[in-house]
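As a warm-up, study this chain.
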Amino acid sequence: MATDTLNTTESPTPVSFWQAFAFWLKLGFVSFGGPAGQIAIMHTELVERRRWISEKRFLHALNYCMLLPGPEAQQLATYIGWLMHRTLGGVVAGALFVLPSLFILVGLSWVYIAFGDVDWVAGMFYGIKPAVTAIVLQAAHRIGSRVLKNNALWGIAAASFVAIFALQVPFPLIVLGAALLGYAGGRWAPALFNSAGGHGGAAKHYGAALIDDRTATPEHARFRWSRLGLVLLAGTLLWALPTGALTWSLGWNHTFTQMGWFFTKAALLTFGGAYAVLPYVYQGAVGHYGWLTPTQMIDGLALGETTPGPLIMVVAFVAFVGGYANAVLGQEHLFIAGAIAAGLVTWFTFLPSFIFILAGGPLVESTHNEMKFTAPLTGITAAVVGVIVNLALFFGYHVLWPQGFTGSFDRVAAGLALVAAIALFRYKRNVIHVIAACALAGVLISLIR
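Now compare it with the structure written out below.
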């Protein structure tokens, strides 16, 4: 940390659009560690070191992003970019948070699908899969320990698990039911639904910032009904035009069109982070459409964990494999089909996030009182815990019994999963380190066998 920028009453030098562009581009390549790690990086760089925005304004924006479906770290970058450099700044900040990950995942997805039968590649993924199982279980524990503060919330989590595991209830219905329970609980037992963790703690002071606590709201960030209508119209057109073009040229039932529609719905259901929506993606992409296999879904999550950007970018892998393996554009254009599918899905997945920020940002800026989690969101977040536990069991089943329960139990994979869990839970090791170690172990095991 640059100590000469701290504890001063002098505001930092104004930041040009291109200076901000360079920072957002760099962030897109180093944003490892999931939402918590990405938000920590932005806080260190933007609040503590560069002082582009004050702690209080940073947390105010973050609490709004936490209320939205979608990747909160990417939305936070979009919000700050918009606040500093208008709509173009927001679009650039949000896009650069995603694009490096998209290009990296397209390349890795191609290597995976084209060369996955090479011994060392297969061995690497053999080692990674047990680690992913442990990582998903850790995600359930991490969210649960923060959210499940009373029996009512534990009950919602248990009910969501039973609903998706035993009753095969679609994920959107689980979200809706949890929201209704949260709404009712907020009215009749508000103390029980006001216990979810958040980011609205007491703010620290790191010195004067460009956008400080007392800085007036910029003109472009002031709420106007006309501007809200324009943003909503633009967002509707940016969704409807490509959807209409795909439907007109390829038909509603074409893979590309269905991917656009399916991942638009997925984008609106990502309350609680990517782990929460992955069961919905699995239900649709694996179970309903057959775009990829359960094993490929696990491998895709492993790739998503090891690349920068939001974890929800795993949808780019899902789309690439679906376009490539199903030869959507014919056998002679496999890579192009996969790349187009990945690009389309990324567009439809992240478009709502930009609209939420550009439309809702002025409303948020109209008051600087601390944002609070609503009772329906608390209910949804509790349900997410049960859904993620189901996802961990799903991954564990396919990793430990690769041929099903009628086949043999994979003791080696179980050992790797146990070691990964100990590293994550007991020694708090970094996710990237755990995945790298398990990948190396998988390669060594493939050489020995």
